[in-house]
Fold:
Amino acid sequence: MINLKSVKNPMPEQEPEIRARNFKEVAEGYTPEMAVNEAMRCLKCRTKPCTKGCPVMIRIPDFVARIAEGDFEAAYQIISEDSALPRICGRVCPQENQCEGRCVRGIKGEPVSIGRLERFVSDWHAEHEDELKSVYGYEEASRMKDGSGKRVAVVGAGPAGLTCAGDLSAKGYAVTVYESLHKPGGVLAYGIPEFRLPKDIVAAEVKKLEDRGVKFICNAIIGRAESVDELISEEGFDAVFVGTGAGLPSFMNIPGENLLGVCSANEYLTRINLMKGYRDDYDTPVPEGTRVAVIGGGNVAMDAARCAMRMGAEKVYIIYRRSMDEIPARREEIHHAIQEGVDFQLLRNPVQIVGDEDGHVTGVEVVKMELGEPDASGRRKPVAVEGSNYILDVDEVIMAIGTRLNTLILDTTEDLEANRRGGIGTDDGAKTSREGIYAGGDAVTGAATVILAMGAGKTAAKSIDEYLKKKK
Structure:
């Protein structure tokens, strides 16, 4: 007999054959009854290993206990003490590698669905916010403290920048966020598809910050229009946080990458998400192949492949040089992609892209791989099988093999030192080599997760607060 306590309460979802052709959110969320039942699976561990697995140190057992009691607002308030973006984190965080990965319940079964519970209470709060304000009489601004009139510039409106801005504004500092694109959100806006993260949720989180006095200036490329030094010397900011992400696309440098029908996942997803290419009432041009190959095995590759299905492709392939055991994407995203009909060509590596006389993609030549000895990352190194090449017939190729750091801020900020990864160098408190300048997120570490970027934003906000309190 199955012990029901060892199994998660399933999340209601759209049926695969329906959702594979629309951009509506796949997961439909817990009902209150489901949330309470799931929360009651928590073992209330005294050592709280789940909290230790959270980059922003949310008091997970405490908020889960409130859900089990049916006090959803109290659960939300506990989460919001540490997380600036709970509706977003509940949807896109890799909980299986963080909080849920340390859940004791998972030793002899499935861990508590911490991410689903976080999503539930934050959605519940958003749905009942007006009613809650009238009952409890609270306002977001009521938590603001005296920041002594100090001003902070935040460069980049992605997860790190939004979190840093939120924490600093809550302390009363005057915060201005500069964003190079035409909308705030960073990767939340341009990278993650609507079916995983509805953009009205991102807009609502930005609106909360605006209501607390955070000012957003879009279409502003710091490092070109103005330098970081000018933000301090001419604009009069007392400190600057740099959270510009790592958004430059990477390519394989194989023959045929300049053919028509080849694009980066960055461009493809930006056109679909930020520029609304998935909507019929927008004229954004988006490459629309009938047979699409996506190169890569991360979350971005899954997003691109699943978007291609929804944009009308008849066949979509994921080409990845290792096996399913090594693929880095979240298990949930892989599961959804398989359900939706994406064809995984594993232990395969592209060697060239082929085209016709007009320069259009007609296929991708791949070679079969086998796994050899582990490499520096601990994963077994893929080795080509000689003579195993074949051509996969496709008319579109999307490169999703990772991103590169943009060095614009490093190149235009005097005496700002880089780290060994090529990102902005910082200490453990997000402080750079320049007084008053802090950095965090992908701009420091290279491409990572939303929640790690948020953790870096929180760390920087704490350090900036300490610095400004000492500054005369």
About this structure: Confidence is low (pLDDT under 50) at residues 140-144.
